[in-house]
Amino acid sequence: MSAKEYNTIEKALTAKLENKFNTEENLKKADDIALKQVWKIYEPLVNAVDSGYTLKVVFKN
User: Can you tell which superkingdom this protein's organism belongs to (predicted)?
Assistant: First the structure.
């Protein structure tokens, strides 16, 4: 297989995967996971400073 053929196949497969997985549902899941991970990192720090504080993690538009 030539490099040109390989690149053509790679581009086609990449496009298929992006079309299949780049959906609103998957993006929402990824956002939710990202927010939870940030919360897991910072919540212990906030709690260590003062247990009276509550951490809220949101995306800024």
Answer: Bacteria
